[in-house]
Amino acid sequence: MDWFEETYYPGWRQRIKVERVLHRERTAWQDLLIFESAEFGRVLALDSVVQVTERDEFIYHEMLAHVPLVAHGRPRDVLIIGGGDGGTLEEVLKHDSVAAATLVELDPAVVAGCRAHMASVGRGAFDDPRAKILFTDGVRFVAETDQRFDVIIVDSTDEMGPGEVLFSEAFYADCRRCLQPGGVLASQAGNPFGELDRLAGKRQRLGAVFADVGFYTAAVPTYIGGLLAFGFASDDPAARRLTALQLAARAVPAGLAQYTPAVHAAAFVHPPWLAAAIDGRA
């Protein structure tokens, strides 16, 4: 394999030069590929879609994890759906207030492959005594569990294949049931530029369940289109409207490379085209 090619639409693709294939297998759920690249270090792809690269994973994982955790203020129990590379788990465990982080991953091969070949992403998070790793269906877990969480983070693949069910109204309703009062749900929401209709659909489904819903964004270079949206939902409208000054007064882990209170607040500010898409007016 000389090049890895990712197709977003028939007329929109990106290619990454493959220096060396480290691992490839067809799991029970998906095609898993880990390869080495000169530009981005090691790359995890599932069903021919880039999930994580060593070079820019910090942008995605810091924004997905710290925005809901700092917005909550003092999270103790955190649930992660997906996230088998360990990057979100590692960021969650940087918060001293977190007593337990439960990661529910459908495909054990993702965790095994990343532990063997992309350990720099999880940085030992799977071995932290506060971490509990469950290999099961995340949809079933939130439908059946009696546990309650302060923050739920959905670190899923895109709205297709095994990850499609993690964007349904029924799933969001089960997540809401699993949240403590004042709890926050954050989720990967795809490329807003290429998926305007999908983004409006996510807004509608989240809004049917939660009292307050919004989206924030970050630029992640290796995701097609660069711009990535994250869903944010809570029954407490104040959680989404905290200022940079208010956020700075909270416990923020030291040494982060992407997240700051100012970046957090600014990520919820959208240009008109994106605001219109979120509201279904595009």
Compact summary:
The protein is of the alpha/beta class and 282 residues long. It is built from 10 helices and 13 strands. It has helices spanning 57-72, 87-92, 108-117, 119-122, 138-144, 169-178, 196-207, 244-248, 261-266, 272-278; strands at residues 3-9, 12-17, 20-26, 31-37, 41-46, 49-53, 77-82, 100-105, 131-135, 149-155, 179-188, 212-219, 227-234.
Helix and strand layout, with pairings?
Elements: E1 3-9, E2 12-17, E3 20-26, E4 31-37, E5 41-46, E6 49-53, H1 57-72, E7 77-82, H2 87-92, E8 100-105, H3 108-117, H4 119-122, E9 131-135, H5 138-144, E10 149-155, H6 169-178, E11 179-188, H7 196-207, E12 212-219, E13 227-234, H8 244-248, H9 261-266, H10 272-278
Parallel strand pairs: 7-8, 7-10, 8-9, 10-11
Antiparallel strand pairs: 1-2, 3-4, 4-5, 5-6, 11-13, 12-13
Question: What would your notes on this structure say?
Answer:
The protein folds into 2 domains: 3-53, Spermidine synthase, tetramerisation domain (Spermidine Synthase, Chain: A, domain 2, Roll); 57-278, Vaccinia Virus protein VP39 (Rossmann fold). The chain has helices at 57-72, 87-92, 108-117, 119-122, 138-144, 169-178, 196-207, 244-248, 261-266, 272-278; strands at residues 3-9, 12-17, 20-26, 31-37, 41-46, 49-53, 77-82, 100-105, 131-135, 149-155, 179-188, 212-219, 227-234. The relative contact order is 0.14. It is 29% helix and 31% strand. It is globular and about 50 Å long. The strands form 3 sheets. It has a 7-stranded mixed beta sheet, sandwiched between helices. Strands 3-4-5-6 form a 4-stranded antiparallel beta sheet, covered by helices on one side. By secondary structure, the protein is an alpha/beta fold. The protein has 10 helices and 13 strands. The mean pLDDT is 93.
